[in-house]
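User: Hey, my collaborator sent me this sequence without any context and asked if I could get a structure. I don't really work with proteins. Can you help?
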Amino acid sequence: MTGGTAAPRHRLRNRLMLAFAAFTLAVTALFGLYAVVFAYTVEDMFFNAMLEREAEVQLRHRTGSGIWATPRESWMRVVEDADGLPAGIAATLRAEPRRTEFAGADGDHYHLRALDAPDASAWLVAEVSGQLVVRPQRNALLRLLAWSGVAMAALALVLGWWLARRTTAPLSRLAGLMADTAPDRLPAAFASEFRDDEVGLLARRLEDLVARIRAFVAREREFTRDASHELRTPLAVIRGSTERLATDPALSAEARHSLAHIRQSAASLEQTVDALLSLAREEALPGSGTSTGVLALLERVVVDQSPLLEGKDITVDIDVPADAVMALPAPALNILLSNLVGNAFAHTREGLISIQAHGGHLWIRNPGAGVRAADLQPFAKAEASTGFGLGLSIAGRLCERYGIDLVIEEVEPGHMVARLPLLDRHRA
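Assistant: No problem. I've predicted the 3D structure and written it out in structure-token form, which is a compact way to encode the shape of the chain:
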């Protein structure tokens, strides 16, 4: 069974594009920060160099004349007393004696240089707000950096899209090739279409896997063809023999009853073989897409499985309305009910086996040692089982094929329940 193929989602391509864009933005922001820090640092170094030269002049003048000279720059002045420093600087300086740069009120900005002459101490104060170059250009600089970052991110997206598309195109092509495969439609010799890189290596490994699958499918088809012949031949012999025996007038009523049961069992087995071979070949079972009435088929199954009740004190209660329908073709429903009812009959020693339809489900309840969900696996057998452990596995595969929710559980110690959904009567 195949379904519609969803449109591919280019998650890897998108991640590559976003990684390029994020990396570019990070690099742009980092170097933008470096540019701003560099500009402020150079500006501060310029002011500090001017203060250093002026401090040398002041100290020579103080040593020669005993007084401080008038600074050569109008935006510098010598302050001999801390109380003469601009507002707020004295308190900050006492808390941070090594600090040399201060922000004042109304946008003023100060640089400070201590003057330590042999006979006196003072401060050389420079109010540099009028000489600042970076601050007036700061907003423009930040806008330039922001637009540059956006432009670089856009360029990175384009480059990332191109590179991601070039990188992921072979992967997408390989994925599309694999998405179109089926057991009867396997690609051949496709690895040579890809370059000798990581994608090419993956393609070669997939080609090897496809070759092994093709060989397995061929062996499986040969087996199912041979099995079909080998299984149908003895069944045809049994059917022919029972038909000839049925014409013998010397047969007793009991013998005729047993013969009819053998003939019915052979016919049921032929139907089961056809269903199993169709499952093995992944073919549609006869009557696929149809629904089947439950009651008539269930009654026939109970009769066919009745030999499992011989010698047991068991009562079978069937409460299923005549219009109960299940979304399965008759052959599949026959196999399913035969396995579930036969399992209930085989694992019950005494008591009541109840088969009821209510709440939109068919319920098969039986006391005794039952099965577990694990027994749906091939060759998994309960302790009381006398078969090969394939019956419930077949039932599980049928339900999986037709989307039927089969539930087998132990509702209470020693009481098993098998539950199957019935088709809504209004939709049937």
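In plain terms: The helical segments are 11-65, 89-95, 134-179, 198-246, 253-281, 294-305, 330-346, 391-402. You can pass these tokens on to your collaborator as they are.
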